[in-house]
Amino acid sequence: MNTTATLARRAGVLYLVFALVAIVREFLFPAFVVLEDAAATARNITAAELTYRIGLLISFATLVIFIFLVVSLYYLLKDVARRQALLMVLLVVVGVAVSLANLLHKLAALVLLSGADYLSVFTRPQLDALALGFLRVHSSGVALALAFWGLWLFPFGILVIKSGFFPRILGILLIIAGVGYLVTSATSIVLPAYRQVVSQVMMPLYFGEVPIILWLVIKGAKVPQPQTR
User: Fold this and answer.
1) What total number of domains does the chain contain?
2) What SS3 state is found at 186?
3) Is residue 228 in some structural domain?
4) What is the DSSP string of 78-130?
5) Do 61 and 96 contact (CB within 8 A), yes or no?
6) With contact defined as beta carbons under 8 Å apart, do 202 and 188 qualify?
7) Could you tell me if residue 226 is inside a domain?
8) What is the pLDDT along the chain (229 residues), one digit of tens a residue?
9) Domain range for 61
């Protein structure tokens, strides 16, 4: 097996693991937050604190896997267009940094609801409200991170198109997925009331990443043979 094919399948496995872990975190864990009800939100967290902490750990693991994934893709595609490959890595690294910082807001909610003695200067409703406030800030921070999850797909899609390793349509689908993430992110920031509606409309575009994942895992990458005269 040639080096390119090995790198491609390694990247595909990492991409698949990243996607599966992200799906588990997004859909198999409770949301905990009850909008406009700080007391109910606090009860949800304290009643299932271990689940809440496991969710945080999985979110952290997802970001770590993402770093290894983009490094693997860089080594696969750096000879296609080095600047585009570096831009791809930079956008992911910034997005990971934003997401890691944003996780601190979820940790802050745990601290506020911990019942520590030094928090006794606050009433219970005040602590519940502060915890919900931090979780709402986290939700807003997700919209910022989402922009980077869209932006990195543009250089990635361009590299896929230029490389000749894959069908060009896979790169086009990645760029379309990037547009979907950016539209959702911009709507969440500017018109948050429409966030849910726009996210549902854009949902089919997100699946533009799925074909490249399957192609990398199953087919790998094939280096184009030079044409003979």
Assistant:
1) 1
2) helix
3) no
4) TTT-HHHHHHHHHHHHHHHHHHHHHHHHHHHHHHHTS--GGGTTS-HHHHHHH
5) no
6) no
7) no
8) 458 888 899 999 999 999 999 998 888 888 888 888 999 999 999 999 999 999 999 999 999 999 999 999 999 999 999 999 999 999 999 999 999 999 999 999 999 999 888 998 999 999 999 999 999 999 989 999 999 999 999 999 999 999 988 999 999 999 999 999 999 999 999 998 888 899 889 989 989 999 999 999 998 877 665 554 4
9) 3-218
Tokens of 96: 């990971």
Task: From residue 184, give the alpha-carbon distance in Å to each of 25, 40, 119, 210.
Answer: 20, 28, 38, 19
Asked, for residue 202, whether it belongs to a domain, the answer is yes
Contact 160, 192 (CB under 8 A): no
56 alpha-carbon distance from chain centroid: 14
Query: Is residue 26 domain-resident?
Result: yes
